[in-house]
Design brief:
The chain has helices spanning 26-42, 63-70, 72-78, 116-126, 137-146; strands at residues 4-10, 15-21, 48-54, 105-112, 131-134. It has 152 residues and is α/β, with parallel strands linked by helices. Helix 4 links the parallel strand 4 and strand 5 (131-134). The chain is globular, with a radius of gyration of 15 Å. It starts with a strand and ends in a 6-residue tail after the last helix.
């Protein structure tokens, strides 16, 4: 399986889609983080957006690569007034501050991962109207695209 690493912004649907998969290295995790930062720096001020975080098939090639990727999305989204539900599992995240850079805010998120046991447990414990955890990329994309976003 070829590694996939990208982030894209669909202005018409106010949707960020980000994908990292395969046996990624720390360098590839850095490239993914850069793709997120680049896209987020281009989102217009005051935008309300939703995000599809697709980690389906992600299998970091080392412990250091795993550690490198796992806090990227939670820290990034905290800058857009969003706290990922599963952060309640981690004491070190209890004081995470939420801000709203340039008036940009996340309204909904879907997280996709192939580890069905873990992701179904996250959905059971932390899923809510505006945030879901699925093991199926198509179901994830269908749900996030159907989530309404107020026009900007």
């Amino acid at each position: 399986m070829k590694n996939e690493i990208y982030t894209k912004w669909e202005e018409d649907s106010a949707l960020v889609i980000t994908r990292i998969s395969g046996a990624v290295t720390e360098d590839e995790v850095s490239k993914w983080k850069q793709s997120l930062e680049t896209i987020f720096s281009s989102i217009p001020k005051g935008t309300k957006f939703k995000i599809f975080v697709n980690l389906h098939g992600l299998n970091p090639s080392s412990v250091s690569a795993h550690k490198a990727y796992r806090d990227i999305v939670p820290l990034l989204l905290s800058k857009y007034n969003w706290r990922i539900g599963y952060l309640d599992l981690f004491d070190e995240a209890k004081d995470l501050k939420l801000t709203s850079e340039n008036g940009i805010e996340c309204l909904a998120a879907v997280h996709c991962h192939h580890d069905s046991y873990k992701i179904n447990e996250y959905e059971r414990r932390f899923g809510k109207t505006s945030e879901h955890f699925y093991d199926d990329p198509e179901k994830s994309e269908t749900w996030i695209r159907s989530y309404p976003v107020a026009s900007h």
